[in-house]
Design brief:
The chain has 451 residues and is α/β, with parallel strands linked by helices. Helices cover 34% and strands 17% of the residues.
Length: 451
């Protein structure tokens, strides 16, 4: 029997409300900045909510030929951009790789539903004449992984997973399994979402899942684990990872950010909209992830929470952590990135894992924002206010989706130098920070996004 292989993360790429650049993303996330602001892409006056983690500085032609970009949906543009960034971040030259041993696993919840609604409106207005011939390929969830594979020229397994908000965690887990079982050596894995369309927004608002914000006048939303939490704030974006068999990564001298040590998947089988109130399957997912990584609960240094900002799930997640971690629960710091990025469905899982991997690298935990009125029942250490320096070796990432899909990923720090500025330096020799991050920060300040 062949030995199961170790799986490491060698590259990261992100398109987010906190920037379309890895260093900027970490800089703003770790500083406790928020990407939540009033929506600009459509009129929100009919709704009780108007805020979102909207991306306003993304230009697909920075990554994709304009002709190809026009034939993609926004979700696929996000996916391809994040994959190209992750490939470069990993210093991965696919010309030197066996492309048959490179797979693609991407998650998305609603896929190209935005483009489907837009196409429907256009067809009605034009009485079904002059229909865009690319309508089908922009709306299929399959397009998300397919466009990434086309852009990179990979020939291994290529799959899109759609299980709601846990889709990216599922994609990461399946990629892990593919590498462990010797099917491939490298997987380009991640998730993308572009749900900011008035019809989707209206449906979420009608379901009373969005946090009311009085026309955008209330800005301290969402509020995970806070006593006044009142719902989610939508977001959008993508995140991508280069997952690689450890020895393969070491042979090519790849930067190694972290190791995936295990994952687990349980299902509530209870409701499409409401989590099962005892949290027993959430607890089981956490326990199984710890067991699959061959850890003890006492060894977990950090938990990146789903932290949705809803009354029910935040309490259930807290209870599940307590029961799964036992006496260690109150010792382990917990934080939610959704307070800064909103809930971007499948992309949230990508943001969570990217932020957690960077937390392990920098030995620093970004804070949970807007938690100013602690809920007596949600009484764990949620890293409120400011971020925190902390010795971190092992972390769990919780992804609990609509329909009761509960996935937990176990990831650990690897003491190998991460990618340096020299790899990403421009031809003129300027550092990555000088070339991309500093101008992006200046732009954000000028736009009033940060102080």
């Amino acid at each position: 029997m062949r030995n199961q292989r170790r799986v490491v993360i060698t590259g990261l790429g992100v398109v987010s409300p906190l920037g379309c650049d890895l260093e900027l993303f970490w800089h703003l996330l770790s500083r406790g900045e928020t990407g939540i602001k009033p929506i600009t892409s459509f009129d929100t006056s009919p709704f009780g909510a108007s805020l979102a983690g909207e991306i306003t500085d993304f230009d697909p032609t920075d990554f994709i030929h304009p002709k190809k970009a026009r034939r993609m949906g926004r979700v696929s543009q996000f996916a391809v951009a994040s994959a190209l960034m992750a490939t470069r971040n990993a210093a991965l030259d696919l010309e030197q790789e066996d492309r048959e041993r490179v797979g693609v696993c991407f998650g998305t919840s609603v896929g190209g539903l935005k483009e489907a609604f837009e196409a429907h409106d256009s067809m009605l207005a034009k009485q079904y004449r002059h229909t865009n011939p690319f309508t089908m390929t922009t709306t299929f969830p399959n397009a998300v992984s397919a466009e990434v594979s086309i852009a990179l020229g990979t020939h291994g397994e290529c799959e899109t997973y759609s299980i709601g908000c846990s889709s990216t965690a599922n994609a990461i887990g399946r990629a892990y399994d593919l590498i462990r079982s010797h099917d491939v050596d490298i997987v380009v894995a991640g998730g993308a979402e572009a749900p900011l369309h008035p019809t989707i927004f209206s449906a979420m608002d009608a379901g009373r899942t969005l946090a009311p914000d009085q026309g955008g006048t209330i800005r301290d939303l969402p509020r995970p684990f806070d006593q006044t939490r009142c719902g989610i704030v939508l977001g959008e974006g993508a995140g991508c990872f280069i997952l690689e068999e450890q020895e393969h990564a070491e042979r090519r001298g790849a930067p190694i950010y972290a190791e995936l040590e295990g994952w687990s998947f349980t299902t509530d089988a209870h409701s499409m909209a409401r989590p099962e109130e005892t949290g027993k399957e959430h607890r089981r997912a956490i326990e199984r992830a710890v067991a699959s990584a061959h850890w003890f609960p006492e060894e977990v240094d950090y938990i990146n929470a789903c932290g949705l900002g809803t009354v029910e799930l935040d309490l259930i997640e807290t209870i599940a952590i307590k029961k799964a971690m036992g006496s260690s629960a109150y010792r382990i710091p917990v934080s939610s990135f959704k307070s800064a990025l909103g809930h971007a469905f499948a992309a949230s899982g990508a943001f969570q894992l990217i932020g957690t991997v960077l937390a392990l690298q920098h030995q620093f935990i970004p804070p949970t924002l807007h938690l100013t009125h602690p809920d007596p029942q949600c009484d764990l250490d949620y890293v409120t206010g400011l971020g925190r320096s902390k010795t971190l070796q092992r972390a769990l990432v919780n992804s609990f989706g609509f329909g009761g899909k509960n996935i937990v990923i176990a990831v650990s720090r690897v003491d190998v130098p991460a990618l340096r500025d020299t790899i990403l330096a421009s031809e003129s020799g300027s550092t990555y920070h000088e070339r991309l991050v500093a101008p992006a920060l200046a732009h954000s300040r000028q736009a009033g996004l940060i102080q």
